[in-house]
Design a protein that fits this description.
The complex is a heterodimer of chains A (262) and B (310). Chain A is of the alpha/beta class and 262 residues long. Chain A contains ten helices and six strands, in the order H-H-E-H-E-H-E-H-E-H-E-H-E-H-H-H. In chain A, helix 6 links the parallel strand 4 and strand 5. The radius of gyration of chain A is 21 Å and the shape is elongated. Chain B has nine helices and no strands. The relative contact order of chain B is 0.05. Classes of the chains: A alpha/beta (262), B mainly alpha (310).
């Protein structure tokens, strides 16, 4: 069944979580001190760039198979951070792209990253390249690039499908330090098996906040955590009230009747 | 740093902009409807020419604008586009709030296709840009005789062969080639089904070997976590192969001891243990995606797309 329009529960739930996120962003902007835990995979990005520079070999950043959506935008935000580091250290970042729209944005972001570090001349237009919009043609292209360029570091951020293991195992073969982050839960095991660091679940969306330490983004991150806490509370309450014979069982029965007509 | 009161003003502006935007969107989408009807003959070519001229003018204008104005344009377009989908999805399909419509239906839903077509048009522009980039990269390889330049030659051969027969077969699929019995559609079919598809399948099959090497590395028990993963993987694997099932086939199919059968244990690990973790991760992803979407939509993202505060 496809969901054509949100029902009242969706609207209420999204509104509450959105309000929480916006409130935490506002309070962070107002000067509230926020703490976020260390995420090793994101901390390792600097190390990976440094290592590639020491070895005098380029780096590769894949944004996965997403077309223009929230996953690819997050991946591009991380790509720009890596590109800035690459520009600062005088290294190359190769960004092969699968989608024409993502390609146009990626080229602009990487170009801006080099310019913002004061090295616009170091940007090579060939390094951000559109390979193919077909899954395995793209995978073959990236595998070829990893092998030919002997990249020292690979970054796989975005939504991946079956090509995830093809790409990361090729990176393993050339001895690259590999960092992956994906919201695709089916591909996480493959990245865990073949990458040095893997960022899973909502850590992927925390990346820009973690890397930039911008108050707005940190506030958003804390809002995410509060939202998750709310979801957890709902799961616990739902589990407790769904058990027949429990004092609050009538709530779940009423909700089921209201939502599903059951 | 902006204070909370200022932020309240900003939120107020967003709400007002949202309301104004909603009315403007509704009017715009309905005003544009007649333009998107099918056209033929001279009208079609006039529409194509007019659209091209309009886009060239718009692009030239955008190109001349200073960076700060371009970013403002991007912010407004992002907000209005997001607003359309938010209103379309979160407002009900049919409700009394749409009292001015005959059947009280959502006024934005009929415009989904039109907005989809507009998105496709923009994608078409970028496709041209991407193809140009691809040709440029390979052209430079050939011109400079870089290592492996013959791969770039192969790219051009494949590119032109697929483009020629792909476009030709849409125009005249049954045309005969060089007075032979072979038609254009057959050649295209051969190029696609007998060349491209097998190449994709070949690459997919390589995955099996990579899985073996990755599993070998992952299952080396060095830490307690790796040990747990090894045990879980062993149970799941054995629960799905005949050998594993045979090992515990003497246990009863029903009753308490049936839970110790290999397939039952595998199902429990996958359906309860693993599923709980997977759903927790999915919840996190949902909230994370919502936060990221809000940041992009409301121009709150920093560090990348909206580098400077406007």
């Amino acid at each position: 069944m496809t969901l054509e329009h949100a029902n009242l529960l969706h609207v209420g739930f999204v509104a509450v979580i959105s309000a929480i996120i916006l409130y935490t962003i506002l309070s962070a902007r107002a000067g509230r001190k926020l703490f976020i835990r260390r995420i090793p995979g994101l901390s390792a990005i600097d190390e990976a760039v440094g290592r590639a520079t020491e070895m005098g070999r380029p780096m590769l950043f894949s944004t996965g198979l997403s077309t223009i959506d929230i996953d690819s935008l997050q991946a591009l935000a991380i790509a720009q951070y890596v590109a800035r580091l690459a520009a600062r250290y005088g290294n190359r970042l190769i960004v092969p792209v699968v989608d024409p729209v993502v390609f146009a944005i990626a080229e602009q972001l990487v170009r801006e990253a080099y310019a913002s570090e004061g090295k616009p001349e170091a940007f090579r237009a060939d390094d951000v390249r559109f390979l193919s919009d077909q899954q395995f043609a793209y995978a073959a292209g990236v595998m070829g690039l990893i092998n030919r360029e002997r990249v020292a570091s690979t970054f796989f951020f975005g939504y991946f499908y079956a090509e995830s293991l093809l790409l990361s195992e090729t990176g393993q073969e050339v001895g690259a330090i590999q960092i992956a982050g994906t919201p695709a839960t089916t591909q996480v095991p493959f990245f865990l098996a073949s990458c040095d660091y893997t960022i899973i679940g909502d850590e992927f969306y925390a990346a820009s906040a973690y890397l930039t330490r911008e108050p707005t983004l940190l506030g958003s991150l804390v809002g995410q955590d509060v939202g998750k806490g709310l979801l957890l509370l709902m799961v616990v309450l739902g589990t407790v009230t769904a058990v027949p014979g429990m004092p609050l069982h009538f709530i779940s029965k009423w909700l089921a009747r209201w939502l599903f007509g059951g | 740093m902006m204070r909370t009161r200022q932020w309240a003003i900003v939120l107020g502006i967003y709400i007002v902009a949202g309301l104004v935007g909603a009315v403007a969107l509704w009017w715009l989408t309905h005003a544009l409807t007649p333009i998107f009807r099918p056209l033929k003959g001279a009208n079609l070519w006039a529409a194509v020419g007019g659209s091209v001229a309009f886009w060239i003018g718009l692009m030239a204008l955008l190109h001349r604008m200073p960076a700060s104005v371009k970013k403002r344009v991007a912010v407004v377009v992002t907000f209005v586009s997001g607003l359309f989908y938010v209103l379309e999805f979160y407002l009900p399909k049919k409700s009394g709030i749409f009292f001015w419509r005959t059947h009280h239906t959502n006024p934005f839903s009929p415009m989904l296709d039109t907005v989809g077509v507009a998105t496709l048009v923009i994608t078409g522009f970028t496709l041209l840009l991407a193809t140009f980039n691809l040709c440029l990269v390979h052209g430079k390889n050939i011109a400079a005789r870089r290592t492996g330049y013959y791969n770039s030659v192969a790219f051009y051969l494949a590119f032109f062969a697929m483009a020629t027969f792909g476009l030709w077969q849409n125009h005249a699929p049954t045309s005969k080639l060089f007075a032979s019995k072979v038609t254009v559609a057959q050649v295209y079919g051969y190029l696609f089904n007998s060349t491209y598809v097998p190449l994709g399948s070949t690459l997919f099959s390589v995955l099996a070997f990579y899985m073996a090497t990755a599993a070998f590395r992952a299952f080396r028990v060095r830490t307690a976590e790796a040990g747990f993963m090894m045990v879980a993987a062993f149970i799941c694997m054995m629960g799905q192969v005949p050998l594993g099932m045979w090992l515990t086939h003497t246990l009863p199919l029903h009753g308490p001891l049936s839970h110790l059968r290999m397939e039952s244990m595998a199902n429990w690990v996958l359906g309860v243990f693993s599923m709980a973790g997977l759903r927790a991760v999915t919840f996190g992803i949902f909230v994370g995606a919502l936060a990221m979407s809000l940041r992009i939509w409301l121009n709150l993202e920093r560090g990348a797309f909206f580098e400077q505060e406007l």
